[in-house]
Amino acid sequence: MSKKPTSTTAGAAQATTTTGARSSAAAASSVGPVDAPTGANVQDGVYVSCNKPGVFALTFDDGPYEFSWDLAKSLNEQGIAATFFINGKNWVDVLTDSVTTSDGKKTYLEVVKHYKDMGHEIASHTYEHKELAGLSDSEIEYQMNTQSDVIYKAIGMRPAIMRPPAGSYDQNTLKVLRKLGYSVVNWDVDTRDWATHNLNDEEQAYKTMDKDTPSTLGHITLEHEVYDQTVNSLVPWAIKYVKSKNYKFVTMSECLGVTDYYQ
Question: Looking at the record, which segments are called Disordered (predicted)?
Fold first, then answer.
């Protein structure tokens, strides 16, 4: 949900340049329009929880960033597959920037590929972390198709799942996203780590699960991999807590029961 304070917000001007968006649109919509989902885990046509009990989808927004390589590696070593909703140009420029990791210097394109190599799923969070509600069709297409190109350059596949920045959308947003072939996902456990920076408050968000029953649908959580406290304090605590509740960590595709998570 957070946007790097020093990031450019010139996306509205850039969005008027649709040549690149048109060139990507055919590939991005190859699976065809997505029908509006229904079910107990859906609100207003948007997935907000898993479709079955006993599972837990750990998700991160706004990356990649300096912590991402080692986070993906650490989760893999613990047998946990997460889902990363990433931007192309937010806290870093994925196409041009690099980072020093425990395995040496890496480009951010290599970091994105590393997510997949570590067994995690990659989803879209728009190119520049633009809130989509109220944007024109061409602006939404620019944000989604440009980001699809970034992810394709890293892994050779395009995402079919996305999360709107700040969870913000309107009915036109959903219409355009479905036309482009995307399923839309928000969350039901919100740590608000982007706002509070208070570890106790963030842990309390998880403790709403104390009221779960055996029939409670599995959860989708929201964290941001751009914060040291989230990566190095909240996530280790959350893993222990979720395991204590006998939940199984799953990727977003398993959480939702979908097979077309890449296009």
Answer: 1-24
pLDDT in tens, 46-85: 999 999 999 999 999 999 999 999 999 999 999 999 999 9
CB atoms within 10 A of CB 9: 10
For the four alpha carbons of 125, 261, 231 and 193, in that order, the dihedral sign comes to positive
Give the residue among 220, 136, 143 at the shortest CA–CA distance from 172. Answer: 136
Residue 259: pLDDT band by 50, 70, 90 thresholds? confident
Alpha helices in 52-96 (DSSP H): 68-77
C-alpha–C-alpha distance, residues 59 and 39, integer Å: 21
The gap between the terminal CA atoms of the chain, to the nearest Å, is 25
Tokens of 111: 């970091």
- pLDDT tens per residue, range 214-230: 999 999 999 999 999 99
pTM (whole model) above 0.90: no
- Which one-letter DSSP state was computed for residue 112? H
Domain ranges of the chain: 12-256
Identify residue 87 by its one-letter amino acid code: N
Joined together, the tokens standing for residue 67 give 């912590």
